Structure formats: structure tokens, C-alpha cells
Amino acid sequence: MNSNGFKSKYYRYIFEHSLDAILLTRPNGTISKANPAACEMLGRSEEELRKAGRELIVDMNDPRLRPAIAERELEGQVMTELNFIRKDGTIFPTFLTSALFEDDDGEMISVMIIRDISRDKEYIQLIEELKCKAEEDAMHDYLTNTLNRRGFDQLFRAEITRSVRFDLSFCLAIIDVDFFKMTNDRYGHHVGDMVLVEIARILIESTRPYDILGRYGGDEFILCLPNTHEKDGLLILERLRHQVENSVIYTGDQTIRSSVSIGFCHFESDIVKLRRYDDFIQCADQYMYKAKQIRNTVYHRGFRKD
Fold first, then answer.
1. Active site includes 103?
2. Active site residue: 185, 219, 253, 278, which one?
């Protein structure tokens, strides 16, 4: 066998057995030959592919198509991602390598090697989703589905910046569960967890979408009320306190009732500019400890016990 015969047989073997789809086409888009992998990938027989031509198997709306054709004409070859279409109409992503060459008769032919990257794209999407989930988990408390301390700090710092920039006020509250240690000691930690979950549910359902709620410690929650004046903040927090007070948890033959002590501070934008991050936390924390001395109350500047 001469060298040309060997090469011909060698290339034919590659063409027939390649796992990637291979199409031999004319620059005008007509298809002259397709290997078995191309037929399987596109869901068409070789004859069907010849009749279909490029327009029925390539997504003509893919914005990468025309630049790819132009580059191939200019450089003689191109590598790009491009969407193709199966016989059933499914559009799927591929990595395409295409080159131009002349056959023995001097006619221009293009060879297209096409690799289906659907699974690669799905894998990349899965990885991105897992990364987003991990980032979200890193900012959330798994038990109560509120922000954890890290997550709250990040969003609260952003809210401080926003308040200064747009001349807005905000309220900050720390919410402590009354007699939580006693509940744990008497009923067990699983019941204590039930109490935290129920209180978190009330807080989540009763706050506004743009309020920032987090679990700040074992039995403490922290809540920022953006763009909220002191009077409105007091109304919101009193409503939350009443809802917790009226809630009931049933476990076996036990009925568990809870209450919370809330300390909160209101900050006008001109004050916010002069304060450090820790100043806001310390203010709310200070009033929370005053509220704990009374129990089941909301304590703030100007508080008076009836």
C-alpha cells in the first residue's frame, strides 16, 4: 500500500470512529459528509443531514455564528462555542473547531469537528449553584434560617453606608429570649431549639422584606429596620413582642410559652456619620440588658415603665 493509500485509510478510520461529530461541508453551508457520531449527536441520518444543510442544524440566532464564519474566512480556521439543533428541536451547546482546505479538484471544503459540551455546561452550572449555596450557607444560621452573625454584619455595614449616603435613619434592636436557659434545663435542648425556630418564624414573617434579621448569639436575635423612625420602630417591635408572647409551642403533653426582651436604638443619619460600627451594637445591647431586667418588654431611649 502506498503512502497515499495508507493516509486515506487512516483518515477514514478516524472519521468513522471519532467520538466527536465530524462534518465535511461547503463554505455555503451544504453538507457533503457526516460521520456516525454526527448522526447520533444531531439525531439525523447522513442523508437527512445532507438535505438539512447548516441552517437546520446550527442555531442561526446564536450571536457567535457570524463572527465565527468571518474569522474562518479570514484566518482559514476557527475555534468557538456554538449552539446546534437536534432533529427534535433541542438546542444544545458545543465546542466547534472548523478549518478550510482545498480538495484534489481545487474546491474549498470545510471540516467541522463538533463536541457536545452540554454536560460540561451542566457541571459548571452545578458548581456555580453549589458555590452560591455554600456562600449563602456561610451567611445563614442553619437552625433558624436567619442570617448568622457574619451575614448580618455584612448587610448591616452596607446599610450604614446607605444611610449616610442617602441621609436616612434606621433602628437597631437586639432581641433576647426570656428564660431560655431555664427552658433548656427543664425540657431539653431539642425543645429549646423548637422555641428558637418558632420565634425566628414570627420575626421573619412579621418583618418587611428589606429588614435585616440575624441570629446574633445562642438565644439572641438582631434586627435592623432601615429607613425607620423611632416611633415606627417602636410600633414594629411591640407588635413582634406581642406575637411572641401569644405564641404557643406544643411538645408531647407540654405547652411552652415564650417572651422576648428587646432593646433598640434609633439613629438619625447625622449621628450615623459620627459613629463606629461597634457603637450601634453596644447601644442596642445596653438597652437589651435593661429590658431583661424587666422581661417581656421593649426598652429604648426615653423608656418609662408604667
1. no
2. 219
